[in-house]
Specification:
- The complex is a heterodimer of chains A (about 290) and B (about 290).
- Helices cover about 75% and strands about 0% of the residues of chain A.
- Chain A is mainly α and about 290 residues long.
- Among the domains of chain A are: about 35 residues, no CATH class; about 170 residues, MetI-like fold (Orthogonal Bundle), CATH 1.10.3720.10.
- Helices cover about 75% and strands about 0% of the residues of chain B.
- Chain B contains 13 helices and 2 strands, in the order ααββααααααααααα.
- The chains are: A mainly alpha (about 290), B mainly alpha (about 290).
- At the A-B interface, helix 1, helix 4, helix 5, helix 6 and helix 7 of A face helix 2, helix 4, helix 5, helix 6 and helix 7 of B.
Chain lengths: ~290, ~290
C-alpha cells in the first residue's frame, strides 16, 4: 500500500473515521455527560458536589449493593475459572466425539441471560425439577433461587460464562509452543509439574484476560440478579434500574461512573497483561503477538 | 497424537489407553446433557404442559393451547417482528460502519493504533447499563427515546466494537500479496477493490453479521432502558413474563423458545464458518 504519503493518511481517516466518530458520539459523549451530571455540573460549575458519590458509600442499601456487585462478580468467576481450566485441559486430549462436544459446549454463549435465568428457574426453584427429583428420597433442596447467598445467580452466571472462559483458555494453552512443554518433560518434569510450573504460568496472561472480562460482565449484569437474586441486597446494576425509573438521575450516573471506573481499571490491567503476553510469547508464535 | 500411539507400543501408557478416553467423553457428554440438554427439554415440556403440579416429574397433561394462544397473540408476534426488524437494521448499519474502520485498522499503518484499539474495546468493557443510562438521557432530550431508531442506535454501541474487533482479526490474516499482485497485473485500484479485496472480506463479514444479529436479537439491558415499555422486543417481553409476582411458566417457555430458535440456528451456522479465535475475538477477547 502507499504508506505514509499525505494522500494515504486522509484515506485512512476517511475509512476509520465514521466508525470511530459514531463511538465518540454515542459512547464517549454520554459517558462524559454522565460524569458531569454525577458531579452536579450539568447546571454549571456552581453546582459541583460529591454528594451522590458519598451516597453510594453512606446509604446502607447502596453500600450493601456495592458489596453484592463485587460478590456476584468474584464468586462466579472463581467457580468458572476452575471448571474452565479443567475443561480446557480435557479438550486438549483426544476423545470420542470431541468435535461434537467442541461445537456443543459453546451453545450457552448464544443464550441470552434472561433465558439462562429461566433455565435455572425451571431446574432449581423450590418445587422445580431437581426438588421433585430428590423428594421421593425424603430430601428437599435448600433455597437455590432468591436465596440469601445468591446461589441461583451464581449458577446462571457460571453456566453462561463457562464456554467463553474455556474458549479463551484453550486458546491460551494452544498458543504455548509445543517445544516448551516437551523440553520440560524431557528434563524430567512429570505431567502435573509441567502443567503447574510451565504451562499455567505461560497461559496466565490469556487466563487473566478471560477472568477480568468475565468479572466485569457479571458485575454489570442486570437481568440475572434481578430475576434470580434475593430482594436484598441487590447489586448496583439493579439499583441503577430502579433509581433510573424513579428519576434520581445524578445518583444513577454516580453509580454508573463507579462501575465504569472498575471497568477502566480492568481494561488497563488487561492491556498491561496482554503486552506482557506478547513479550513472553513474542519469539514463539506470530499469531499470538497481537495479544 | 496418532503417531504417539503408534510409537508408544511396549510400555502401556495410560494416557493413550482407549478406555480412558471413552470415560472422558462419557463424563463430558453426561455433564453436557445435564447442564444443557435437561434444562432445554424442561423448557420445551413447560411450553406444552397443561397441568404440571408439584410431585410429578413429567407433565400430567399436554396441550398446544399455549403455543396457539401465543402465535395468535398480536403482542408476541409484534415483539418478534420488532426484534427482527431491529436486529436487521442494527446488523446492516453496524456492518457499513465497521467495515472501513476495521480495514483501516488492520491494513494501514495507523498512528496511535494502540490507543484506537483501546478506544474500540472500551464499550465492550463498560457495562451496557452504564452506556444505556447516559444514552437514554441524551435520547430523551433529542426526542428519540422509546423509538425503534433510538433502540437501534443504542444497540449499535454494543455491536459495533465487537464487529470491528472481529473484522480486524479476520482482515489481519488476509494476504496483502493478492491485492499487490492484482495491482501489478494492471488492475485499477477500484477493480482490485471490487474483484479481490471485497470477496476476501466476505467470510469475516458474514461471521460478524451473524454475531451482530444474534447480539441485537437477544440484547436486553440497553433495549429495556431506552425502549421499554413502548418498544417491545422478545427479551423485554420475556422479562415481564418472568416477573416473580406474575410468573407464568408455560408462556415464558414459549416466548423463550421463539427467542432461542433463530439465535441457536445462527450460532450453529456461525460455528461452521468461524474459527475459534475469531469467535473469541467477537465475544470480547483479544
Amino acid at each position: 500500500m502507499t504508506q505514509g504519503t499525505p494522500r494515504a493518511r486522509w484515506l485512512v481517516w476517511l475509512c476509520a473515521g465514521p466508525g470511530l466518530l459514531f463511538l465518540g458520539a454515542l459512547f464517549v459523549g454520554p459517558l462524559l455527560w454522565s460524569l458531569a451530571s454525577s458531579l452536579g455540573l450539568d447546571h454549571g460549575l456552581a453546582g459541583f458536589t460529591l454528594e451522590y458519590y458519598a451516597q453510594i458509600f453512606t446509604r446502607p442499601a447502596l453500600r450493601r449493593g456495592l458489596v453484592a456487585s463485587i460478590y456476584y462478580g468474584v464468586v462466579p468467576v472463581c467457580v468458572t475459572l476452575v471448571l474452565a481450566i479443567g475443561l480446557a485441559l480435557l479438550l486438549r486430549q483426544h476423545f470420542r466425539g470431541r468435535a461434537w462436544f467442541n461445537g456443543l459446549y459453546k451453545l450457552p454463549m448464544a443464550v441470552p441471560g434472561i433465558i439462562a435465568a429461566l433455565l435455572v428457574l425451571t431446574l432449581a426453584e423450590r418445587g422445580g425439577f431437581l426438588d421433585r427429583l430428590v423428594a421421593p428420597f425424603g430430601l428437599s433442596l435448600p433455597h437455590l433461587v432468591r436465596d440469601p447467598w445468591g446461589v441461583g445467580v451464581i449458577l446462571a452466571s457460571v453456566w453462561k460464562q463457562l464456554p467463553f472462559m474455556t474458549l479463551v483458555i484453550t486458546g491460551a494453552f494452544a498458543a504455548i509452543p509445543q517445544e516448551v512443554s516437551s523440553a520440560a518433560r524431557t528434563l524430567g518434569a512429570n505431567r502435573w509439574r509441567t502443567l503447574l510450573w510451565i504451562e499455567l504460568p505461560m497461559a496466565l496472561p490469556g487466563i487473566s484476560a478471560a477472568v477480568l472480562l468475565s468479572f466485569i460482565g457479571t458485575m454489570g449484569s442486570f437481568a440475572i440478579p434481578d430475576l434470580l437474586g434475593p430482594p436484598s441486597p441487590r447489586p448496583l446494576a439493579v439499583h441503577m434500574f430502579s433509581e433510573f425509573g424513579s428519576g434520581h438521575l445524578p445518583l444513577v450516573y454516580a453509580i454508573g461512573m463507579l462501575l465504569s471506573v472498575f471497568s477502566v481499571a480492568v481494561l488497563l490491567a488487561y492491556y498491561a497483561l496482554s503486552q506482557r503476553a506478547a513479550r513472553l510469547l513474542g519469539g514463539g508464535t506470530e499469531g499470538s503477538s497481537h495479544g | 497424537m496418532a503417531e504417539d500411539r503408534l510409537l508408544a507400543s511396549p510400555p502401556p501408557r495410560r494416557r493413550f489407553c482407549p478406555e480412558d478416553r471413552i470415560w472422558v467423553s462419557v463424563g463430558l457428554f453426561a455433564s453436557l446433557a445435564l447442564t444443557l440438554g435437561l434444562p432445554l427439554v424442561l423448557v420445551m415440556l413447560w411450553s406444552v404442559a397443561e397441568r404440571w403440579a408439584a410431585p410429578n416429574l413429567l407433565p400430567q397433561s399436554y396441550t398446544s393451547a399455549t403455543w396457539l394462544a401465543v402465535l395468535q397473540d398480536e403482542g408476541v408476534l409484534g415483539a418478534a417482528l420488532t426484534s427482527t426488524l431491529i436486529a436487521v437494521l442494527v446488523t446492516a448499519c453496524t456492518a457499513v460502519l465497521a467495515w472501513p474502520t476495521a480495514w483501516a485498522m488492520a491494513k494501514f499503518p495507523l498512528r496511535h493504533k494502540r490507543a484506537i484499539e483501546i478506544f474500540v474495546l472500551a464499550p465492550v468493557i463498560v457495562p451496557g447499563i452504564v452506556v444505556a443510562v447516559g444514552v437514554g438521557q441524551v435520547f430523551l432530550l433529542m426526542g428519540i427515546a422509546y423509538t425503534v431508531p433510538g433502540v437501534v442506535l443504542v444497540q449499535m454501541v454494543g455491536t459495533l466494537p465487537l464487529m470491528i474487533r472481529l473484522l480486524v482479526a479476520s482482515f489481519e490474516t488476509l494476504p496483502d500479496e493478492l491485492i499487490h499482485a492484482a495491482r501489478s497485473l494492471g488492475a485499477s485500484p477500484l477493480r482490485a477493490l471490487w474483484h479481490v479485496a471485497l470477496p476476501l472480506c466476505v467470510p469475516g463479514l458474514l461471521a460478524g453479521c451473524l454475531l451482530s444479529f444474534v447480539g441485537s436479537f437477544e440484547e436486553f439491558d440497553k433495549t429495556f432502558l431506552v425502549g421499554a415499555p413502548v418498544v417491545q422486543t422478545l427479551p423485554v417481553m420475556l422479562y415481564h413474563y418472568l416477573d416473580p409476582y406474575s410468573l407464568q411458566f408455560p408462556l415464558a417457555a414459549v416466548v423463550a423458545l421463539i427467542l432461542l430458535l433463530p439465535v441457536l440456528l445462527v450460532f450453529v451456522l456461525s460455528g461452521r464458518i468461524m474459527r475459534d479465535d475469531l469467535m473469541a475475538a467477537g465475544m470480547g477477547k483479544v
